[in-house]
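Schema walkthrough. Field components (list of strings):
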Amino acid sequence: MKKKWISYPYIIWMILFIIVPLILVLFYSITVRTEDGIIFTLKHYKRFMEPVYLSVLFRSIYLALICTALCLVLGYPMAMILNGRNIKRRNILILLFVIPMWMNFLLRTYAWMTLLERRGLINTFLNMLGFPSMNLLYNNGAVVLGMVYNFLPFMVLPIYSVLNKIDRSVIEAAEDLGANAFTVFRKVIFPLSLPGVISGITMVFMPAVTTFVISRLLGGGQFTLIGNLIEQQFLLVGDWNFGSAISMIMMVIILLSMGIMSKYDQEHEGGGLW
Amino acid sequence: MKRRMVLPVMTLLLILAVVTMSSCGKKDQVVLNVYNWGDYIDESVIPLFEKVYGIKVHYDTFSTNEDMYVKIKSGGGNYDVLFPSDYTIKRMINEGMLAKLNIDNIPNYKYIADRFRNLAYDPENEYSVPYMWGTLGILYNTTMVKEPVTSWKILWDQKYSKQILMLDSQRDSIGITLKMLGYSMNTRNPQELQAAKEALIKQKPLVLAYVGDDVKDKMIAGEAALAVVWSGDAVFMQWENEDLAYVVPEEGSNLWFDAMVIPATSKHQKEAELFINFMCDPEIAFKNTDYIGYSTPHTEAYKMLDPELANDKTAYPDETDLVNCEVFDDLSDFIAEYDRIWTEVKAY
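Field assembly_structure (string):
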């Protein structure tokens, strides 16, 4: 209690840059500017209920779910490999895993464009082997690929940090009692790693459902996701009210999904990143 | 109690101090904030200007008029010189967002050809100095498109599925669709717009991507067969890839002018006029035109051009080719309809 003042700068920061903007977004989303001044309305939310926009919402959630599932399938074994017993090898692996993240996110996504293009690296290679070119860029697959590539570390690292904390003696005890490797995994390791899995899922799902850069670059502007819709309303069209309403809806969805997730995460151990 | 108050107050003071200090440092030298289209200048002329006048230039770029307009309107950027197109200039004039130019400070204005003065968007030449002009048309790769291209309809041809690049710019993309359907690019008729929206949605499965400046890399590399491009970009792409040809479809297209203006919020109008005058200097105007390939309204710069470019029908079309072309009108509040249609087409 004595050191309470340490938190004051953060409280000021929070009020200035989190609370006030949130109130502004909420205010914009329920008002409209007319000649008689600003009046309250729910028409922006009503507009979002039109089928065109709902389909954007479902498309975003659908792609984000696919991305999260793929990240989990790829990320869990990866986390187990990282958690191998040899400390020296483990550190090298983690370094190799993290180094690509040091590069700029946009640059990495652009790199995928040159790989996937019709005359890009992959197609040139296919042609050399005598296969015809494939349309790899500008489709759902390319967008999901870009998301998985960019967000995979957010799945692997929380799982890894939880796996790392599991007491070896628990595993040894299970082995002593006659469990085979699969049973050990199913009955001991996996249940204990659940907090990491949960926080990994949240950390992948949230950026995936709101991304707009990946869908614009790798989707060629055809796969409007909810992030693109918000960006478009603010930067191109200048309809801040509708943009704010979409943002509010987005926030509610994220809050809901976090609520569902935390229900499963009863032990509140978190994955180290939360 | 007292001690508790000290820290928040101190923190606030510190924030204030940092904010005021950071705004002080800039006073010694004028910094001119210039906001132009991406890829729309020979960047070597900027250091030249800085050296001659001792004014620092902060150069930023935008990719569509709407992009720029929204930013200025919302009070962002503190820009001193902008390069919008005709209809956006008109809109900004109507909304009192532009400063009147003092033409005495821009003596090089005399080089601007007569046909580019007193245009509808600025009938008295009070606000703008033309920078470039051009058309909108179809650029196609002659190795992939064997038939003659004469109509916008080719962009709706199943044969070229996933080989078409559209512009990610609402007035342009909706405009050419309206033209294809035989309507005006400036229509305010809801039925005509509805028809354009349906046509664009029908076209969507055929489109490879909606692009901005990256159209250049794509077309030069032969990634697509057909693209909607501005004439100046077409000139540049034809330099890089000889298989490319440009056509203004017979239904007509958009004839446009980009001009330099000063926003009313600018605090450095004198310096901004100096910059505009510098851009109209024959040498500099030539450098820019030669570099970006767009069509110049500048008489002296035009004379200096390589005859090959000066006679290029892509950049300097005959007047007869332009009869069906229209200049974009400011639609004022009706633009919300276009916004909505484009949002829905993209979201579909």
